[in-house]
Amino acid sequence: MEHAAAVADPAAPPGPAVPFFTQAAGFTARWPAIAANIGAVVDRGKYSHGPLVARFEQALADYLGAAHVVGVNSGTDALVLLLRAAGLEPGDEVVVPAFSFIATASAVVLAGGRPVFADVDPVTYALDPATAEVTAATRMVMPVHLFCQLADMSAVTGFAQRHALTVVEDSAEAIGMRWDGLHAGLSGAGGVLSFFPTKTLGALGDAGAVVTDDERIAETAAALRHHGRFGHTLDHFPGINTETAIAGVNSKMDDIQAAILLAKLDGLDADIARRATLAAAYTERLRGCPGVRRLPTIVERDVDTTPVFYVYVVEVDHRDALATYLAAHGIGTETYYPVPLHLQPCFSHLGHRRGDFSVAEAACTRTLALPLYPDLTEAQVDRVCSVIRAFYGGSGS
């Protein structure tokens, strides 16, 4: 095993497997409501972009406190459509963090723009605007809210104001998170949500949404998701009353996914509370563990903030060897993210080198996500932590 010398006691305590994610128990408990909603879809025969989508959009808008929610078929599409609806033009630059999922930067490219990378804060892993380079072509800044808390939106909005930039938020992971009362995605022009199955509010397939308080952005995103079809005259497209005022895509949300999400939305706050309990259990059991460099830390701000544990991410020594060891003992993990965005082959033309964004690069070698979902039990948390301690030569008890 790589770094085997770091492991004093290779024997981990026996126990059952712990998957990285499952929603089997929670899905079963909510099945009556889900089945009723799916039955309504089947009976009506409208399977895409139908009344269940509209119902979900309104229910979610009420939950978020947003003026508009536009359901689409993935969080990635939501980012692309938001950027276009917010006015990104071909060649415009968007400041994005170097530490994030590939969709953060690829969405900029797909919307016609050019990503400009910046480093991240070592505690929140979110965009550090002080490291961003702004040019005459920079038009937007896109913070990403990762893992359990929002980026420093005071710093981001201040940076945007100084450089006359539009703020758009990659809030795909951030449902339930708030900054001074505003839900994630609503501090600037708009944001997005992902409903990928592992997310805090997950579907049984891909789905996403654009969230905004801006009517024009909402109407444009809604048209873009449906081949550019407005179907009525808009003030900002004077004289146009046609189905294809702008070139759009097919990114409509399926009513089956809306039916599932609508049924699960009622239990979202309970799921968030359960995640917080499990995160606290992890922190208690892993505090002081040799080899664990950093546990999740919620940063105190000058404004009220609401953290939500989408995943529980630790920084550890010998990360890849630990992941292999956990897998050998039936415990699933995920690596966020093994390669920083500026070093991804698809962005090699931007000319970045290793060392350009040191905090992001260090995080890519150390961060590991442990199992965290409402179906998880505290006994399973004990099992995960015991195996981690065994790997580093500590007590497995």
Task: Quickly list its features.
globular, 397 residues, 35% helix, Aspartate Aminotransferase, domain 2, 12 helices, 3-stranded antiparallel beta sheet, alpha/beta, 2 domains, 13% strand, disordered N terminus, Aspartate Aminotransferase, domain 1
Give an overview of the whole structure.
The chain has 397 residues and is of the alpha/beta class. It folds into 2 domains: 4-25 and 267-391, Alpha-Beta Complex (Aspartate Aminotransferase, domain 1), CATH 3.90.1150; 27-265, Type I PLP-dependent aspartate aminotransferase-like (Major domain) (Aspartate Aminotransferase, domain 2, 3-Layer(aba) Sandwich). The chain has helices spanning 24-29, 31-44, 51-64, 75-85, 102-110, 153-163, 215-224, 255-265, 268-286, 319-328, 358-366, 378-391, and strands spanning 68-72, 93-97, 114-118, 138-141, 166-169, 178-179, 182-183, 190-194, 208-212, 292-294, 305-306, 312-316, 367-370. A hairpin with a 2-residue loop joins strand 6 (178-179) and strand 7 (182-183). Helix 4 (75-85) crosses helix 7. The longest helix has 19 residues, at 268-286. The two termini are 23 Å apart.
